[in-house]
Amino acid sequence: MKGDIRSYRGIAPTFGEQVYVDPSAVLVGDITLGDHSSIWPLVSARGDVNFIKIGARTNIQDNCVLHVSRKSSGHPEGHPLIIGDDVTVGHHVMLHGCTVGSRILIGMSAIIMDGVTVEDDVIIGAGTLVPPGKTLRSGYLYVGSPAKEARPLTEEERAFLPASAENYVRLKDDYAENVESV
């Protein structure tokens, strides 16, 4: 299934193999989705003034907003949105012009702002606000508003990160085969 897919200034979203995009999602412009990624109901993603790149086996859950920042004198490249592989983006998350590494879990209703870098193997707690320009170091749990390093991840949490992404690969495959409009 593919949602509401629109080009902007002649650039349309592109998709890897076996991607799932819910029919209620809206994707506009310069967006690239990696193999086996999934976009769930009511996601809004605009790659209009910069690009969005989503890695393989990454899931963007219900009601997320994905956007970018334009080029400016202070930021000559602007801030694209780059999301790595095996990332789980929880419900109602806002990602704006940031770089998210691989094997990340972003909890529900988190907000990650322009110029943020999230290194690999990180958990961001539900409701966390990551202010502009901050770097979240690999191997930690971050919580709060503004985000603070809470503690190192346990081995179980580290193992859960790719497992969570794999669960969504299986779910999107099930949806692709079994969901029908009625």
From TrEMBL:
Gene3D superfamilies: Hexapeptide repeat proteins
Record-linked PANTHER family: DYNACTIN SUBUNIT P25, PROTEIN YRDA
Name of this protein: Gamma carbonic anhydrase family protein
Native source species: Pseudidiomarina insulisalsae
Phylogenetic classification of the source organism: Bacteria, Pseudomonadati, Pseudomonadota, Gammaproteobacteria, Alteromonadales
